[in-house]
Amino acid sequence: MNALEDRLRRELPALASALVEAKDDPRRTGVTTLGSDSVTASSVVKRRTTAWLSVAAATMLVVAGVVGLVSIDRKRPETLVSSIEAPMVLASSGDEPGTDDSPIDDRPVTSAVESPIATDVLNVDGETVRSCDTFRRGVWGAVSTAEIPFTIRSGLTVAGGTWVSVDDAMNRRIAGECQDSEALGDGAVEAQLAWPIGDDVYVASIWPSRNDSDPIPGWFNSIGRYSVTPLRSIAVIGRITPDVELPNVPDIASAAVERERQLIGKIEQVRDLRNYVSSLGVVDGGADASGTSASVTAVPFVRDGSAEEICTAAGIETNPADHERDGVVVHDETSTIDGVDTRWLICTGDSASGWGVTALVSDDEVNWKLSPLGLGNSTHAGDTTEVVALDSANATVHYESLVGGRSSNATTIDGGATWRIDTVVT
Amino acid sequence: MGTSSRSESGVPTDADARFADLFAVERDGMVRLASLLVDSVAIAEEVVQEAFISVREKWEGVDRPGAYLRTSVVNGCSAVLRRRAIEDRFQTVRSAQPEIVDLPIHLFELRAALDCLTGRQRFVIVLRYFADASDHEIAQLMEVRSATVRSLRRRAFSILRKELS
């Protein structure tokens, strides 16, 4: 609660001042735009990553950074609109700039570009698109690095769909997607588009957070850079398909398709790698220039209930000083061998928490072997966790922190009683 | 020193001067407070204006004009939110919409999160963390028990934590 209190104390006066000052400044009213001069790649990500990754867990694992947020006026969803100018360097963590653990200061973030909108060529930010038939998907000219940074815009259509576009610094629409679809709230509306720049494929997405208790979901868009070159930057992109529409620039579209094919090939390589479980017989601590290794011995933990409840209880157990958080299920799998069911439950905390990854293993789903593996918080943007539970004894948790620049493998060969954690600085 | 304290010659009296001082010192802060409470600067300015008029009219009988002013502002905002709640229930469009303002993203998020609170929850949060009022003071301002204030704050935190996480 302290963090929230601190934030309220810090930001309520700022909000009051901003509201009052904006009233006297007509340039700052009329259109709800989220100026990127006050947005860093990282500041957005952390707050919205929980919901995003809860969706993405089923559909995509993202290694690259994510930028962007769609605003929503809950009272008037027809005014949903956003504008985020995304800097070129997208990889980031979810930390606020300037905070102690923020890596953002070390990263060259291209400054925002003023982007007055040319109403004659673009769907204006704030404009309600009647339907996708009237949505301009125009692309003018080839895309080059000179045109970045770019802006993500998105909004609703009267028909209840969504549109998302990526416009370059010259207000040319690099790519756009519009989807007349189901009404808000059913979780079906989303749009994604991808385009290549150099060796990278950029993917912009918009989708609602799935929250059953909220009939009007929070919306956010994201943009990620997926490089086809270094292996560790490969992401599983669940919803990107070769029929991404870039209708006016067929060469770019075909290039995008080709990039995606390459990505898919790399993804398969990653999947193959996941199946490797080292047979480590000795567990002890140590460190050298290339990384560290350590061991974690499980402690008994008794708890039944849903996976979420168990994760929350385990997180509180291991993080008593940060207890007002919710657990997040990273992986829940039951391995059966010789008639014995072994449940592997890998947890972390919500994105606002400082919880790391916790492994819980049980044969009866009540008595658990609890191992706080640390590693990081899987809900943080740019971090991925992949879990492979081979059988009742062997499992690996692979944690990749692109932003943190480290790659960790936590491995057990004794059913979660002990874990060896090897971390490599990448 | 009532409303008639201005001399017939039009020369400002001591009460006028002190009221002017109060206005100069408190007005901007009250507008900010009211803006957070009702999420509209225009409405906030109206509420504050009305509150100052009320203070001026009752100047002679008011021991602590600043406290009276704040109570008036809070009560005025409360009335606005009550009206708004009724409008939300029975009308499709509010008579007065909050201004759309270009805000930094973290403030935009905060504003949206505050919009998810009930009027009373919002009051508790704003009064506590913007006006730095104690639970006891908030209870007096809202004419509820301190326990109610704590309960409202807990619920508000639950919502804010969810919205801001």
The best one-word shape of chain A is extended
The structure class of chain A reads: alpha+beta
Number of strands of chain A: 18
Most residues in contact: chain pair:
A-B, 46 and 39 residues
Which key terms come to mind for this protein?
heterodimer, A: 426 residues, alpha+beta, 5-stranded antiparallel beta sheet, 18 strands, extended, B: 165 residues, mainly alpha
What does this structure look like?
- The complex is a heterodimer of chains A (426) and B (165).
- Chain A has 426 residues and is α+β, with helices and mostly antiparallel strands.
- Helices cover 18% and strands 30% of the residues of chain A.
- Chain A contains four helices and 18 strands.
- Chain A has helices spanning 2-23, 41-59, 250-274, 307-318; strands at residues 81-86, 150-156, 162-167, 173-179, 191-197, 200-208, 219-227, 286-288, 291-297, 299-302, 327-337, 340-349, 357-362, 367-374, 383-389, 395-401, 406-412, 418-425.
- Chain A has a six-stranded antiparallel sheet with strand order 8-9-18-17-16-15, with no helix packed on it. A five-stranded antiparallel sheet of chain A has the order 10-14-13-12-11.
- The relative contact order of chain A is 0.12.
- The model of chain A is unreliable at 26-127, 138-149, 182-192, 205-257 and 259-290 (pLDDT under 50).
- By secondary structure, chain B is an all-alpha fold.
- Chain B contains seven helices and no strands.
- The model of chain B is unreliable at 1-7 (pLDDT under 50).
- The radius of gyration of chain B is 18 Å and the shape is globular.
- The interface between A and B is large, with 46 and 39 residues.
